Amino acid sequence: YGALPLVDCTGKLVVPGLVDLHVHAPQYAYRGLGMDMELLDWLNTTAFPEEAKYADVGYAKRAYPLFVEDLKRGATTRAAMFATLHGPATRVLMDLVEDSGLVAYVGKVNMDRNSPDFLREESAEASACATVAWLEAVAGQYRRVKPILTPRFIPSCSDELMERLGQLQRTYRLPVQSHLSENQGEVEWVKELCPAAACYGDAYAGVGLFGGGAPTIMAHCVLSGEEEIRMMKERGVWVAHCPQSNTNIASGIAPVRRYLQEGISMGLGSDVAGGHSTSIFRAMADAIQVSKLRWRLQDQSLAPLTVEEAFWLGTAGGGSFFGAVGSFLPGYELDAVVLDDRRLRSTRALTLKERLERVIYLSDDRDVAGKFVQGRRVL
Fold first, then answer.
1. CB 262 within 8 Å of CB 289
2. In what order do the strands lie in the sheet with 216-220?
3. Which of 103, 267, 295, 317 could bond to 78 as cystine, CB 3.0-4.6 Å?
4. pLDDT of res. 2
5. Which residues of 66-99 are buried (b: 16+ CB within 10 A; e: fewer)?
6. How many CB atoms lie within 10 A of CB 353?
């Protein structure tokens, strides 16, 4: 390492980079709005009208920089992002993320049913063809940004579209991201739409989009039953736990302790704009708090999360989707955040763990003094 630059971080905390395993980039503009609604009403009144604006590439060029700049200033080093169904606007997002130095998976969304006319692809064939065009346009264009197959969720994707996306996954060997068992109304709707499926996850598995040979992130998993949990474990599906979003749109509290006990891969997601903050430190604190509520009010057999577990979820847990990421263990990529916690003054002599715990609960972007991604300084 003798030829590498030496950076003096005396007195500061140096932690692995934080990983956001589920975030909607086009929803950034209205974070903090519509938080008194549940999921399906919120999508129709708030999310879909905003996402429709990205049909205009000019709007994407004005809106996406705000999101990427926020992410770059904070402690997040990697993310799995939803864009919209618009290929050109999705490329704008990919360009900006690439230039930022962050590492990300970015997905052009697919949706051909049960959404407004102004935000719906005209057919399964049209959606699949648009996805192929996007994939071919971005092939070989980026070092740090990769495409990810993104059916929005089962209600917005016809059976034919899901079949076509399964074929695309096998052709292009793409990872997959979507939503699973988030909200009660959504889960009941999927039962109506897919009566032959054993569970919500089975509707994805039937077309090859639920782990196995397709590395898969499923966001939320608040209401997953025994069959679904078994399938997630056997197929190696990653769960993106989004505690702030699940609180804001009244979905419930995911049984995170159960998933840890089962050895299911898992990380944290901000889920902007269901979540109102891009901070994964905030997601760690929220995860601990909601796990305490679940333990106290719903199921005392599932112990609350500890600080160490929440920190792991936001670093190595989510980082594992990207490979050897989220730790300073030998062989891991160097993603690191330098934190200056002097602003968080105390009369106590704090241990290292206590300093980290206070950062999780009290810090914000002002405290990020430096950031490295894949060994390269980006901030």
1. no
2. 176-180, 216-220, 238-241, 266-268
3. 103
4. 84
5. ebbebbbebbbbbbbbbbbbbbebbbbbbbbbbe
6. 11
Instruction: Check whether 155 has a pLDDT greater than 80.
Output: yes
221 and 181 in contact (C-beta within 8 Å)?
yes
DSSP codes, 281-349: HHHHHHHHHHHHHHHHHT-TTSPPPPHHHHHHIIIIIHHGGGSS-SS-STT----EEEE--TTS--SS-
Between the alpha carbon of residue 163 and those of residues 58, 231, 300, 305, the distances in Å are 33, 19, 41, 38
| pLDDT over 90 at 285, yes or no | yes
Spatial separation of the C-alpha atoms in residues 154 and 222, rounded to whole Å:
16
Q: Residue 186 — very low, low, confident or very high, per pLDDT cuts 50/70/90?
A: very high
Neighbours of 231 (CB within 10 A): 21
Supply 52's token pair.
């429709």
Are 339 and 363 in contact by the 8 Å Cβ rule? The answer is yes
- Written as one letter, the residue type at 219 is A
Picking from 92, 125, 122, 97, the residue whose alpha carbon sits closest to that of residue 108 is: 92
Both structure tokens of 325: 């990421």
CB 97 within 8 A of CB 144: yes
Angle between helices 124-138 and 87-100 (to 10 degrees): 30
DSSP assignment of 152-172: --GGGS-HHHHHHHHHHHHHH
Q: Give the pLDDT band (50/70/90) at residue 176.
A: very high
Query: Does 310 have pLDDT greater than 90?
Result: yes
